[in-house]
Amino acid sequence: MIKHAGIWIDYRTADIFKMEGGKTMMMTVPSEIHTGNVKGGSRSTMPWGPMDKVSESKMLNKKNAEKESYYERVREAVAGFDRLMIIGPGMAKEEFRKFLGRSKKLHPRVIVVRTMDSGTQNQKKARIEELFAEQ
What are 117-133's pLDDT values in tens digits? Predict the structure, then answer.
């Protein structure tokens, strides 16, 4: 029997809908990607001197590492499934699809990537079931 899974993903959370034997189970994988203001930096030893800033490249590297960790946790949650549908509001769905393509580990075959704004759990579940019915 073919096992299906659908993911609604953005940078804050991933809702995973696992469909096996006519039942749909849902689980949530929270993101640990930090957004917001940068903390750090220091003053120079000279009075009224300039303030050193945190390196932008270091911040970007940290954020990319947090994304990779988040996508890996989502991939592990759907590792035993045959087909995967990815929906979501922003760029996270495309980044996750590309992450799966780069991954050397076994992963499900992505059959559809579609855009869907945020909604209730039932709306997300209904949209995923509707897209699987179209396939």
Answer: 888 888 888 888 888 88
Q: Where are the alpha helices (DSSP H) in 42-91?
A: 56-77
Is this prediction's pTM over 0.85?
A: no
| CA dihedral for 91, 11, 108, 100, sign (positive or negative) | positive
Class of domain 4-31+56-134 as given by CATH: alpha beta
Instruction: Give domain limits for the chain.
Output: 4-31+56-134
- Asked whether the beta carbons of 18 and 25 are under 8 A apart, the reply is yes
And the tokens for 75? 């991939």
Q: How far apart are CA 85 and CA 129, in angstroms?
A: 10
